[in-house]
Design a protein that fits this description.
Layout lengths: L3 E4 L3 H10 L8 E4 L9 H4 L3 E3 L8 H18 L1 H5 L2 E9 L12 H4 L12 E2 L16 E6 L4 E3 L2 H14 L3 E3 L21 E6 L7 E4 L5 E4 L19 H14 L27 E4 L20 E4 L5 H17 L13
Parallel strand pairs: 1-2, 2-8, 4-9
Antiparallel strand pairs: 3-7, 4-6, 4-7, 5-6, 9-10, 10-11, 12-13
């Protein structure tokens, strides 16, 4: 059997390798990553928020598949204990009261990527739906976006480590740090339920913070986004900006109530780079043969191909398992579990 080489060993690459094991032996799969440290960016430092239906129509089949795969995998592998999987009650918090026409905290995620009407599905909260750690102020407003049936949470670092452990145990080769420098050809020259977790979206100081509580008691805070930070070299760990970190610390102190007014303990800090596309949806497809050199096109005698799965933006963790499953099916010539016909070139 021909070898399969996966470039990138973050959550998308690992998910693809994990599902590819259903179609071919582990020792025929190679994961290649040039970073000195795996999971040093978004795959290890992202929020880990999962959503079933916060997407535009062309992404909905993949999103629903991925959400279900996350649930099933957590059920089968004790995901709550191993990587902090849990349903998450998702709320919108406005410290200055209800907004009539203004921006809400979750709008940056919803705009351009959501199904029609999801923003209008907010409702008043009921008992138990507001996180106990949320610092309330007079005149504020909390509305429920999802009661936990369509949103969930994971710890991305623990999740990626779980996937890495599974594929390594199955014999998948991990090349790290390493870079793919050329394509090898054959002789013919051909291509060979106890704790409730919450997700809170709000607006503060012209920012849109996102706050997630996890099963281990850690509360994740993010939302200081910059579009102009230069991408570091793959082998260099991203360096955080002190000013941005201080903003997040101040937001955390304002939003999170601690026993006896104690200061917060900072567990980890990081900077995530998320690949995005101009159209706002990922590319998940086989690279057209006419984009490859003539000597590297697949034939009946030398099947294969080049496949791409990238550009998931803030939804990489949420869409990871669905992406891995359909890409593995594409590679293996199997029927696809979700319609991704709108995600090609």
């Amino acid at each position: 059997m021909a070898n399969t080489v996966i470039l990138g060993s973050g959550v998308i690459g690992l998910s693809t390798a994990y599902y590819l094991l259903q179609h071919q032996p582990g020792d025929s799969i190679h994961l290649v990553d040039s970073a000195n440290e795996l999971f040093a960016s978004a795959s290890g430092f992202a929020g880990g928020f999962l959503a079933k239906d916060w997407f535009r129509p062309e992404l909905m089949p993949l999103a629903e598949l991925s959400f279900e795969e996350h649930r099933k995998l957590a059920e089968e592998e004790n995901g709550r204990e191993r990587w902090g999987y849990a349903k998450s009650v998702t709320v919108s918090y406005e410290p200055n009261g209800p907004l009539l026409n203004g921006k809400r905290g979750e709008d940056w995620l919803l705009e351009g990527t959501s199904r029609a009407g999801v923003v209008d599905s907010r409702r008043e909260h009921q008992d138990g739906e507001v996180p106990g750690w949320l610092r309330r102020v007079d005149g504020d407003s909390v509305s429920v976006i999802d009661d936990g049936s369509g949103t969930a949470i994971v710890d991305p670092l623990r999740f990626c480590k779980f996937l890495l452990e599974k594929v390594k145990a199955a014999g998948v080769h991990i090349h790290n740090p390493a870079s793919a420098s050329r394509i090898e050809t054959d002789e013919a020259g051909k291509l060979s339920g106890v704790t409730t977790c919450h997700s809170v979206y709000t607006t503060m100081d012209a920012l849109s913070p996102e706050v997630y509580s996890r099963t281990d008691g850690v509360i994740y805070v993010a939302g200081v986004n910059h579009a102009s930070i230069p991408l570091p070299k793959p082998t260099v760990k991203a360096v955080t900006f002190n000013e941005s970190i201080e903003k997040l610390k101040n937001i955390a102190r304002r939003l999170i109530a601690t026993p006896n007014g104690e200061d917060l303990e900072i567990v980890r800090e990081g900077l995530c780079f998320r690949p995005i596309t101009k159209r706002g949806t990922p590319y998940i497809a086989r690279l057209p043969e006419d984009k490859l050199g003539e000597d590297f096109r697949s034939t009946e005698q030398a099947p294969g191909g080049v496949f791409i799965a990238s550009g998931h933006g803030p939804w990489g963790i949420s869409l990871s398992l669905g992406t891995g499953k359909v890409v593995a099916e594409m590679m293996s010539g199997k029927p696809l579990s979700a319609d991704i016909s709108s995600l090609g070139f």
